[in-house]
Amino acid sequence: MTSKKVLILDQTQIQQKINRIAHQILEDNFEEKEIIIAGVVDRGYRLALRIEKVLSKISDLKIKLAKIELNKDSSKLESAIDIPISDCENKVIILVDDVLNSGRTLAYGLGVFLNIPLKKLRSVVLIDRSHKNFPVSTDFVGLELSTVLKEHVTVHLDEVDAEDAVYID
């Protein structure tokens, strides 16, 4: 049996989702002076860069980017962040990833910030598949898809994959 890739979002639609998410983040943080956008390597960080670019155009927010590396296959939290964790204390954190499937990656990403005081922590995903095994939810979603478990959602970003597209197969 051959699998057929179906295009869910094209380059224009992905940018529209990013623009809308950036505006939602701004509305949620209109009284803030500074936020930290933390992207999960690799595509989550690429999306974080794009969100930061839009936010910089539409607001005066001071935005700091952080890159979170996780061992997604580990049964315990193994993570690294490229800025001192103390820089995140008492700040608004926006955690970004590309696809929410089981919720493990998002839960591990949230775990990075559990031992420090925060103003608030929000989560962003481009695609939410609604197959959560972990008690996580997203605050800002580009597209929520109802899929079956055997289907696979793939986000392609041109910085990594030479195209901007979301496929399901």
From TrEMBL:
Keyword Secreted applies = no
Coiled-coil stretches are: 51-78
Which InterPro entries does the UniProt entry name for this protein?
Answer: PRTase-like, PRTase_dom, PyrR_bifunctional
Does the record's keyword annotation contain Transmembrane? no
Keywords annotated in UniProt: Coiled coil, Glycosyltransferase, Transferase
Q: Name one GO molecular function term.
A: glycosyltransferase activity
Taking every annotated instance into account, which residue ranges of this chain make up the domain Phosphoribosyltransferase? 8-158
Q: What is this protein called?
A: Phosphoribosyltransferase
